Fold this protein.
Amino acid sequence: MDLTTYAELAVLLVNGADRLEGIAGLRLLLGESGRGARAARATRADLEAMRALRAELLAVFESADAGDEDDAVARLNALLIRHPVHPQISGHDGQRWHLHLNEDGGIADQYAVGCVMGLAALVTDLGVDRLGLCDAAPCRRAFLDTSSNRSRRYCSERCASRANVAAYRARKRRVAV
């Protein structure tokens, strides 16, 4: 079971605030996350629950980004209690036996199980400092730092490039003055 893939669900949700403006956006987000089959039955209550889950996950990333490991872990533990994980052995589509997370409950509960378990595994294996928010102003999108040297600072190559160009231009202006 690749729990990093599950942790990326949290990043998708945290960065998908615009998708939580209505049910159509929620259905799109669920489709992008590989949960499209559940999307058709999404309700207004599911939308509100996903907004609440997004806020809780964003708070985990903000705590981690601020270097407050204890708060990030406390928030993850609270989510693990609220959304218990139930692994089960599965064999389908000609694959060998492997683990899946049993996702019971509403759409937000099902989504939360993967997010929270993935983040918890990543934090315990690699450290809280692997959860970050983009350094490129004004972006602040969430990301997972899976680099070997813990060096990731931006959510994408686009933000890294934009920040580097801005820093270069600022240095040039200082030299010209």
